[in-house]
């Protein structure tokens, strides 16, 4: 890519994820808390199943929001022209809508694959992190406790990446350019996985695993740990305010 498309090619398609990332994370964590309450199954404390199902629901909800951005991003990244010659994000979006509309052939192409990818990742991600965090003893030393959470978060991101990458490969094949122009080879999620496995072998379903792990391992650790600390901080802060109001009354 550097040789033929220039160094700026490494940042192709950067605008769609920038636009989607903040609302995506907000939806993920907000819906996770709501799904967690729903999947308590009458228990007073959440179980590993509660965390996993809540993560699955949050991932599916998140996928519905971000899929149009993913379609535009993949279209931009699959363009092999020099970065300076690649059409803008807005012109690519308009072209997709103009040619194929907003449905399953246009901006929402590959939605089921995105839902499977995000749902499975978050099911493992949240399920493992919150379950293991409760079983492993906490440290009184803040730095050690921070390191414990980072380690669990990193492992959660790596495991989630390893489990969901076949669906990520399917999503890229469906949303990216087809092998033959004018002919759609990759249509459905499971059909695409089966085609890749049959024609290219089992290892092809794990293409891109290393860069995915390098991104979502540390990224997942930072995201979960920051969320954990901020959530506890806000919860304690508003709890203190409620207690003061009760005392005043």
From TrEMBL:
InterPro entries: MCP_dom_sf, MCP_transmembrane, Mito_2-oxodicarb_carrier. Its main location: mitochondrion. It is found in: Mitochondrion inner membrane. It catalyses: 2-oxoadipate(in) + 2-oxoglutarate(out) = 2-oxoadipate(out) + 2-oxoglutarate(in); 2-oxoheptanedioate(in) + 2-oxoglutarate(out) = 2-oxoheptanedioate(out) + 2-oxoglutarate(in); citrate(in) + 2-oxoglutarate(out) = citrate(out) + 2-oxoglutarate(in); heptanedioate(in) + 2-oxoglutarate(out) = heptanedioate(out) + 2-oxoglutarate(in). Keywords: Membrane, Mitochondrion, Mitochondrion inner membrane, Repeat, Transmembrane, Transmembrane helix, Transport. Solcar repeats lie at residues 1-38, 46-135, 144-233. It is a multi-pass membrane protein. It comes from the Eukaryota. Transports dicarboxylates across the inner membranes of mitochondria by a counter-exchange mechanism. Can transport 2-oxoadipate (2-oxohexanedioate), 2-oxoglutarate, adipate (hexanedioate), glutarate, and to a lesser extent, pimelate (heptanedioate), 2-oxopimelate (2-oxoheptanedioate), 2-aminoadipate (2-aminohexanedioate), oxaloacetate, and citrate. Belongs to the mitochondrial carrier (TC 2.A.29) family. This is Mitochondrial 2-oxodicarboxylate carrier. It comes from Iphiclides podalirius (scarce swallowtail). The lineage of its organism: Eukaryota, Metazoa, Ecdysozoa, Arthropoda, Hexapoda.
């Amino acid at each position: 890519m550097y040789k033929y498309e220039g160094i700026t090619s490494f940042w192709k398609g950067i605008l769609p994820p920038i636009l989607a990332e903040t609302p995506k994370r907000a939806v993920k964590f907000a819906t996770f808390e709501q799904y967690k309450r729903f999947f308590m199954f009458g228990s007073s404390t959440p179980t590993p199943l509660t965390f996993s199902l809540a993560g699955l629901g949050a991932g599916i909800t998140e996928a519905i929001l971000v899929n149009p951005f993913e379609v535009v991003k993949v279209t931009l990244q699959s363009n092999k022209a020099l970065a300076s010659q690649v059409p803008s994000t807005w012109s690519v979006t308009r072209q997709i809508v103009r040619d194929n509309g907003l449905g399953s052939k246009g901006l929402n192409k590959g939605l089921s694959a995105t839902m499977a990818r995000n749902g499975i990742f978050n099911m493992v991600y949240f399920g493992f992190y919150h379950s293991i965090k409760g079983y492993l003893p906490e440290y009184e030393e803040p730095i050690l406790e921070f390191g414990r959470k980072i380690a669990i978060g990193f492992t959660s991101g790596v495991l989630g990446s390893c489990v969901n990458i076949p669906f990520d490969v399917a999503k890229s094949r469906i949303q990216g350019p087809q092998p033959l122009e004018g002919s759609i080879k990759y249509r459905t999620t499971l059909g695409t996985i089966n085609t890749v496995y049959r024609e290219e072998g089992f290892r092809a379903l794990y293409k891109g695993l290393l860069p995915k792990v390098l991104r979502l391992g540390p990224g997942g650790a930072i995201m979960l740990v920051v969320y954990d600390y901020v959530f506890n901080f806000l919860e304690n802060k508003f709890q203190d305010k409620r207690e003061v109001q009760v005392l005043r009354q």
